[in-house]
Amino acid sequence: MAITQLDTDTTYRCPSCAGELAVSYDSFECVDCGFTPRHGSD
């Protein structure tokens, strides 16, 4: 049985400025404007 792994080359875009979202401390943060998406527990 094969194991499906996540694609590590996926790039996520910021909804505010369309900049790139980077993983910082287990959460996403925009490298351009500093936008951080809300978490499900917020």
Question: What's a concise summary of this model?
Answer:
The protein has no helices and three strands. It is mainly β and 42 residues long. Strand 2 (20-24) and strand 3 form a beta hairpin.
Properties at a glance:
42 residues; mainly beta; three-stranded antiparallel beta sheet; 3 strands; 0% helix
Question: How does this structure look, described?
Answer:
- The chain is mainly β.
- Helices cover 0% and strands 26% of the residues.
- The protein is built from no helices and three strands.
- It has strands spanning 12-13, 20-24, 27-30.
- A three-stranded antiparallel β-sheet has the order 1-2-3, with no helix packed on it.
Nearest-integer average pLDDT: 78
Give the low-pLDDT segments: none
Question: Which bin fits the share of residues in helices?
Answer: under 10%
Q: What order do the SSEs take from the amino end to the carboxyl end, as H and E?
A: EEE
Widest beta sheet: strand line-up: 1-2-3
Which secondary-structure class do the elements indicate?
Answer: mainly beta
Describe how the helices and strands are arranged.
Elements: E1 12-13, E2 20-24, E3 27-30
Antiparallel strand pairs: 1-2, 2-3
